[in-house]
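Course assignment 3, question 2. Fill in each field.
Student: A.L.
Task: Predict the tertiary structure for the chain below.
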Amino acid sequence: MTQFIKGPWKSGEDEAYKKLAPDFLLVKKGLGFVGILGDSLPREKHEEAARGALNFARVQAMTGKWDIIILDEVNNAVDLKLITAEEVLRFAEEAEAKTEHLIFTGRVAPPEFLEKADLVTEMKDAKHPYQEGKKGRRGLEY
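Answer field:
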């Protein structure tokens, strides 16, 4: 699993993945929220991190070691224009020959992803403290 947005803070996955290691690898490549909740990084840094995340996932996929490659919050990265849908679809074409399943997560999947996917599940917040600018809470969001 390569994380495109999460990075500088603890998340629920940080502890959970250890129970699956060494058969599961989690790598945080994101630099945190983009343009909200006090983000002071230049946009270019977030774009660079997203490209790095996609390149890391590509290298991992090409090893043929993993049955599943998860691009966590890649849909958000595309929606934020940190990387393009075309770049991600190019990755998918390359990775399909080397891995059994590709999983893309995040809100606002671009139509191109929905068209290409075999399975699409949509989850959305009806109400969330995040919408009021509140940070995640231990035990609930992480």
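Instructor remarks: The CA atoms of residues 4 and 93 lie 19 Å apart. The beta strands are 2-3, 27-28, 68-72, 101-104.
Grade: pending
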